[in-house]
Amino acid sequence: MIQLLRIELYKIFKRPRTYISFAIVTAISFIIQLAMISDGKSFIAFALQGVSEQFDIHGNVLNGYLIAYIILQSLLMQIPLLIALVAGDSLAGEAGMGTLRLLLSKPVSRMQLVLVKFMGSFIYTLLLIIWLAIIALFLSLLLFGQGDMINLKSDAFILLLKDDIMWRYAAAFAFAMLAMTTIASMSILLSAFADNSIGPIMTTMGIVVVLTILSNLELPLFSLVKPYLFTTHMIGWKGFFDDPVPYAAIGRSALVLVAYTLIFLTATILYFNRKDIKS
Amino acid sequence: MEIILEAVGLTKSFKKHKAVDDLSFAIKRGEVYGFLGQNGAGKSTTIRMLVGLIIPDKGKVFINGTEFINGRRHLLKNIGAIIERPDMYSYLSGWDNLKMMAALSNKNIKQQRIYEVLEIVGLKGREKDRVSAYSQGMKQRMGIAIAMIHNPDLLILDEPTNGLDPQGISDMRALILSLSRDHGKTILISSHLLYEIEQVATSMLIIHKGKKLSDGRVSDLLHPDDTLTEVAIVPSEAVTAHLATSAWSAYLQPANDNALLFKMNPSLIPSLNKWLVAQGAEVRSIVSKHSFESYFLNITNDTAAKNRTL
After folding, report:
1. pLDDT of the residue at A118
2. What are residue B24's phi and psi, to 5 degrees?
3. How far apart are CA B277 and CA B153, in angstroms?
4. Most exposed of A13, B99, B149, B248 (fewest Cβ within 10 Å)?
5. Is the model's pLDDT at B291 over the cut of 70?
6. What does the alpha-carbon distance between residue B42 and residue B11 come to, in Å, rounded to a whole number?
7. A11 vs B73, B87, B89: nearest CB
8. Does the residue A44 lie in any domain?
9. Is the ipTM of this complex over 0.85?
10. Chain A residue numbers touching B76 (CB-CB < 8 A)
11. pLDDT of amino acid B309
């Protein structure tokens, strides 16, 4: 199993397409950071318009923590699409290349293969999130320095002291990792059904986009299903920037995401174990 | 001789189409077993069932007497296969592909073995090139290298000459014969190219529309008396009349106006030629068709004719 995983990781990181996601994350972060260097002060003035009339705000408001939060808000809905590039390709890509029959004619069980594909996607996701943390958080701190973080919500103004922020980011990245793992497992399931990778990648993107829209629509029609959609719970990381932190709600969201991940993974194993490899 | 692979009653349908129908056969250790059938006859489906890629609706596969389904991972350690095409990771080098597949074989394979296999398939010196830069022939050879990297007893080669030029086909044939004679491998080789199978197989199985038509040792199945000999002559009524009343008429088969077709032992060709010339026939050519081809066409056409009658 370890050998199989090593081979899987070797294959993933030898493919140029794997690095597209890292390049996109880097590019978007740089664009936001550059924009904030050139025009950040007027952006902050505009964002704090209502607040600055009631509060006297001092210090480095345009700091690395705030910039990282802005980047995360922009990126964490897009990253699932990048995860699909690798996870959606995991089984379907092998089928498309004809290497699935090569692998399965070796002493490798189908369940092992699915688990290794899942672990490979998990490690890829982990590295992408770590890269996001380096580029979005640490580079922003380097460029913009530290400071207390203002989290402006539609109904609240939350001030987080600079010594009280780093752990929140650590927890938020860990939660984001869980959410992205759910996406990866769904993508692998779709990948098991297909014989080329375009289908599962596009379907994953489609499902994420449609369910995210449903999760965000404030219509009574959808309020019944919303709690059961994994996209509703994917934004649970934002809870770590509330004060007090809504641990119960975050815990519920984490459980839903874990449940979805297990369901997707089990369904993949059950289906793939009986699949005729005709590609 | 010990049986290395046995298929019993293999049956597989895809929706309403029965791809393989109650197919049974056995391969003995050391044989080169030709697996023949027209395109779409069910060869690839059968081979995929043998290595567990397709799950049979009915039937069993035994490797060295153990049912495949009960010992899949263990049994696959002793099987090397190219299924349909020698697909591999084209963005990696031949060496990387070989090393990965060696690692997957669950055997402790040393670097020396990789060089050894590269030597056998004639790819030594090209192992560091990306597979995407390989010719079709090189890919086929690398496919065989991957199939035999873990030194299996049984090699399953599905259409190994597909896409090869004449030189490549000849090289592949030499390689298969060498694997059998010099390395003691048992080889199941499928093809729709009769001549290729004829050159290498010691036993064979012919299937048609998923059903077994014939199997056994090539020498037993192909009787020399069944060889077809085509004689091209200038049409002559006198010769035709003499022929009808001669002993040669027993060998005569239906043919077109410009040729005579005989089903007979090729050793009779000189006598036939002498007799025809003595009758005043202008013989343009005498071609002895491959007995293998005759046998295959006879057996598949018979089945097709029976199916039409039914």
Report:
1. 94
2. -130, 140
3. 54
4. A13
5. no
6. 10
7. B89
8. yes
9. no
10. 105-107
11. 43
**Is A279 inside a domain boundary?**
no
Model pLDDT for residues A191-239, shown as the tens digit of each residue? 999 988 899 999 998 998 888 888 888 787 778 888 888 888 988 888 8
DSSP state letter for B93: B
DSSP B127-184: TTSBGGGS-HHHHHHHHHHHHHTT--SEEEEESTTTT--HHHHHHHHHHHHHHHHTT-
To test the contact with chain B by mutation, choose from A101, A108, A110 the residue with the greatest count of B C-beta atoms within 10 A, namely: A101
Tell me if chain B has a CB within 8 Å of the CB of A277.
yes
Q: How far is A87 from chain B (nearest CA, A)?
A: 17
User: Does the distance separating the beta carbons of B90 and A11 come in below 8 Å?
Assistant: no
Residue A179 domain-assigned?
A: yes
In-domain check, residue A150: yes
Quote the number of domains for chain A: 1
Containing domain of residue A167, as a range?
Answer: 2-274
Single pTM value for the model? 0.80
Whether residue A244 is preceded by a cis peptide bond, meaning omega within 30 degrees of 0, is yes
**Does the pLDDT value for residue B294 go beyond 90?**
no
CB–CB contact B101 A102 (8 Å): yes
| Structure tokens belonging to residue A199 | 């289908």
